[in-house]
Amino acid sequence: MTDKNRSVFILGGARSGKSRFAEELAGKSGGSLHYLATGRAWDDEMRDRIVHHQARRGGEWATHEAPVDIAAVLERLDAPENVVLIDCLTLWLTNLMMENADIEAAFAALEAAIASARARLIFVSNEVGLGIVPENRMAREFRDHAGRLHQRIAAIAGEVYFVAAGLPLKMKG
C-alpha cells in the first residue's frame, strides 16, 4: 500500500454516522490511535457534542486539539504506526474563515502533509453542497470553499466514503 493509499476521506451529513464509522475504521487499522480535534467549544451545545465524542471514543485515543494548523500536527504525528483521525474538516474551515486565514495556503499545506504522510490518515467532513443555496455571502463562501476542499482531499485519498443513515457507501478505493 502506498502512502497515498493510506488516507481515507469520509463525507456525510449532520448526524449521518460518519464519525462513528471513522472511529470503527481507525480501530480496525491497527496501530496507535490519535484523534485530531478541530472543533472549538463556542457554546454549551458544542461543548456537549465534544464531551459526547470523547466519551464514545474511550481512553485508547490520544487527543490533539488543532483548530487551525492541522498540517503541523499531522507532521508531528507522522509515523507508520500511527492512525490519525481528523474530525472534522468543515469545523477546521470554519476556524480558518473566522480567523481570516489564507485558505488556499492552508489547503495546500494540508495536501502536502497528506501526500507525504506515512501515518494512516482518516478525514471526516460534512457534505454541505447538497442543500439549497445559502442566503448570505459568508455561508455561500463557506459552501464553495468546502466543496473545493472536498474535491482536493478526495483526489488525494486512497479511499473515499459517503455515509448516510449510518451506512457507508464506498466511492473510491
Notable traits:
173 residues, alpha/beta, seven-stranded mixed sheet
Task: Explain this structure.
- The chain is an alpha/beta fold.
- 45% of the residues lie in helices and 23% in strands.
- It is built from 6 helices and 7 strands, in the order βαβαβαβααβαββ.
- The chain has helices spanning 18-29, 44-57, 70-76, 89-98, 103-116, 137-156; strands spanning 8-12, 32-37, 62-65, 82-87, 120-126, 159-164, 167-172.
- It has a 7-stranded mixed β-sheet with strand order 3-2-4-5-1-6-7, with helices on both faces.
- A hairpin with a 2-residue loop joins β6 (159-164) and β7 (167-172).
- α3 (70-76) packs parallel to α5 (103-116) and α5 (103-116) runs parallel beside α6.
- The longest helix is centred in the last third of the chain and has 20 residues, at 137-156.
- The protein starts with 7 loop residues before the first strand and ends with a strand.
- 32% of the residues are buried.
Reading side by side through the largest sheet, how are the strands ordered?
3-2-4-5-1-6-7
Which descriptor suits the 3D outline?
globular
SS strand fraction: 15-25%
- N-end to C-end Cα span: 11 Å
Quick check: average pLDDT? 92
- Sequence of secondary-structure elements: EHEHEHEHHEHEE
* Secondary structural class: alpha/beta
Short description:
The protein contains 6 helices and 7 strands; from the N terminus they run E-H-E-H-E-H-E-H-H-E-H-E-E.
